[in-house]
Amino acid sequence: MEAETETVVPMAMETEQREIINNVMCLLTDPDGTPLGAPMYLPQNAGPQQLQQIVNKLLNNEEKLPYAFYISDEELLVPLATYLQKNKVSVEKALPIVCQPQAIFRIRPVNRCSATISGHGEAVLTVAFSPDGRQLASGSGDTTVRFWDIGTQTPLYTCTGHKNWVLCIAWSPDGKYLVSGSKSGELQCWDPQTGKSLSNPLTGHKKWITGISWEPVHLNAPCRRFVSGSKDGDARIWDMALKKCVIVLSGHTLAVTCVKWGGDGVIYTGSQDCTIKVWETTQGKLIRELKGHGHWVNSLALSTEYVLRTGAFDHTGKQCSSPEEMKQVALERYNKMRGNAPERLVSGSDDFTMFLWEPFVSKHPKTRMTGHQQLVNHVYFSPDGQWVASASFDKSVKLWNGTTGKFVAAFRGHVGPVYQISWSADSRLLLSGSKDSTLKVWDIRTRKLKQDLPGHVDEVFSVDWSPDGEKVASGGKDKVLKLWMG
Questions:
Q1: Threshold 0.85, pTM exceeds
Q2: Which of 128, 205, 314, 406 is the least buried, fewest Cβ under 10 Å from its Cβ?
Q3: CB–CB of 377/393 below 8 Å?
Q4: Per residue in 79-117, pLDDT tens?
Q5: Spatial distance between the Cα atoms of 219 and 221, rounded to a whole number of angstroms
Q6: In what order do the strands lie in the sheet with 124-129?
Q7: What is the DSSP letter of 66?
Q8: Distance between CA 387 and CA 228 in Å, rounded?
């Protein structure tokens, strides 16, 4: 793409003025480092607003899109001249400026508890909003799964059938099912509209369930298959239409701790045997092994996770009329999110480190991410894939560049281990829940605490920010579910 430098500089400017002002050679790139055009000279007094116009023009965007601009991971909020002076940057070679498209919509930060709903008889171990953000489910140590009415902020259905603690739950990306897994190793599938069980318990795992992930809706609609991981060392693929296990993925020598069904159709499993395995899903063949961690792998995150979770649902609330339409819309959203870059994977471990992988490109990690002083409990990509956040037992939340894996910032404020994190749909805010009984909201642009949310009287085990951005749910040891609003 040829970039005309002439269009950038106002013609009326005097020649000698041009000499003085127009002397920063810049290279505008997308987040993956691909240049948007040839290097160009920009006026030193150009700031983010002028850059917005230039990028929209370069990319021929009919709709003017908002962008944020980053120079070596720091957002440019001032004119170039101010930045160059402050950071004493040499202008001998082209200055790389990363242009990151921003969500057109903005999510309001949550700042108050709108409801404290009791009902569970034991600790709330897991909470999750449906893909459209309109429904909410939770799993508890009291062996039940509950659906909650967000409108009236009251319990809707109590689902019984598990014999032990409900450790994990997962909504199908079309919103039609919720699957729950328990400490006894059985899985149950529920109809969110009625709260009724859709089959007998799905049995096969010999120990407790550690993770559940659905096949993305852009690969298969209506949703039928999901994968479960267990402490017994196996992962299993289940088919809801057949109501049985169709493939067993065995090969790990210790517990499987996390499972993710990727957008390219493969399954990733992380394990206490320190490896991550990549499986194809027609016969369950092992296609790649990712090695590098020196201790248990605790958490996996995909750069496309948000669009995989939400499928065809977006912030506009538009409904699809058929599974085919849903599949098509989901595919468009997935392709747009992924761009030309491969799907990225981040793993967090008990060895205090994280790795960034591009499993389709190489079996070797792209980079090793170090800095945590204790085990990494949870890793999560922002919806736009620009950031990775990590929660650790060292009481901090850390922010990393989602493309390069470079460390960006540490968020400190929790006084206990951080168990779980969740992103706002516009990727501008990050939520964390901790053993210290608080939730905290962090502002990604200022890298500061935006909101402190006390209210739970004991450890917060699970947090989720609804995909539509309207609300946050949290659950913990105090047996209550809390809803938070902006």
A1: yes
A2: 406
A3: yes
A4: 998 998 888 777 678 899 999 999 988 999 899 999 999
A5: 7
A6: 124-129, 136-140, 145-149, 154-159
A7: P
A8: 27
